[in-house]
Structure formats: C-alpha cells, structure tokens
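note to self — DONT lose this again. spent like an hour looking for the file last time. sequence + predicted structure for the chain T wanted, 248 res
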Amino acid sequence: MFDFQKGEVLLINKPLTWTSFQLVNKMKYLIKQSEVRGRRSDDEVSNPKSEIKNPKLKIGHAGTLDPLATGLLIVCTGKQTKNIESYQAQEKEYTGTFFIGATTPCYDLEKAIDFHYPTEHITNELIYETTRKFTGTIEQTPPLFSAIKIDGKRAYDIARAGGTAEIKPKTITITEFSITRIELPYVDFKVICSKGTYIRSLARDFGLALNSGAHLTALCRTRIGEYKLENALSIVDFEKKLEKEPSL
C-alpha cells in the first residue's frame, strides 16, 4: 500500500499538452480520493457515524516539463518533498526533434513560426560538426517563455503579456549531444545534460550556429539520474493502481 503522508517517490509519464502543475494537481486529487476511500472503509467498521478527516497532503514535482514535452516527471509526496531539490539537481536525458529553417518566438510549437531561413547550405556533415560546439560546459540564455523569475514575475507571464525582459546567461553542462536521424527539415537528437538546461534554447542556438534558424517540435525526457521513463506510470495507470491498492 502507498503511504503518501509518510512519503512516496513516484515516476510519472507526463502527457502531451499537460503542464507539470496540472499533472501534480490531478495526482493530488486522485490520492486524496484514495485516502478518503481507505479511511471511510476502516471507519465504517469501527464507528459508522464518525467524521472522516483528510489531513493536508504535501506533493510536488522535481523539474518542470513544458506543456508540449512528454516524459519522466518525478513526483514526491509527504516527507519525500524535502528531497525534491536533490532530484532536480541530477543529470537529465532527453530525445526530441528540431525543425531546421524556421523559428518561433518561444522556440517550440506553442507559437506560430515568425521567420524562415535558408537551408540550402546545410549538409549532414555540417549538422554533425555543429553538435560539437554544444558539448561540455557552455553558456546558455533561457527563453523568455520560461518559469524563470524576473523581478518577482515569471518570465512567461511577461512574454504572454507582450513584454520583454533581459535574461542573463547561465552556465550549463551538456555531456552528450548526438544526432539520431537527419531528414531535413527535421533532425532527431539525444541530449544528456545538467540541471537548468533548456532544450528549446539549444534548438535556437543550434539553428544560429548553422547560419539558419531552428525550433523544437518534439521533446521527451527519458531519464533523471538513475530514474528511467520505462519505469514510469501513465496518469491513467496511476489511477488504476490507486483503485487496486488504496493508500494508508
């Protein structure tokens, strides 16, 4: 049985278009419903007329995924929420797809294409060679459409209101940046990187380095530290598991 109050570390496969916040809220609702069912069942046996109490549940996720990204999200409950930062700090692995020759304001498909760029000069050899510029310790500027706080406001709130703001570059480490398929204008990749790496920014910078433009069309987080996507539950499977194994 789950013990969410004592603390659980849950591996969940975030669905496409869901925000990480929406996923955590859905899980919180499902867990509370499960806890109520469990307490009601026990309570009806000992005291059918007693009031059922539902203590506040602590729950949070380690490492936000954009709405248009899928993949591994680590969700902690109860006392395990104290360890969220340690999970966030671990190495991450992603797979995805760049579109070469066009950009969007947010560097992915959340916004429509704003500019087109030439691609006639781009060869497979140039693509492979350019990946080498982005391995090791590098400086990267996060996108304005991000959760970074600027003067107390989320950057994406400023961007969606039509504003602009200066975002300072951050030092990140990309351990591996490999190309797994080239079928222009699409390029598939795999990236292993440190905390704080924005793959959307990598798409923008990669396009610039090719003397063109690029944006992200697909992204999946496949690993955080030793935790792998293949061991994660979908939100549907998580709900079914709760129905079969009520929480304490």
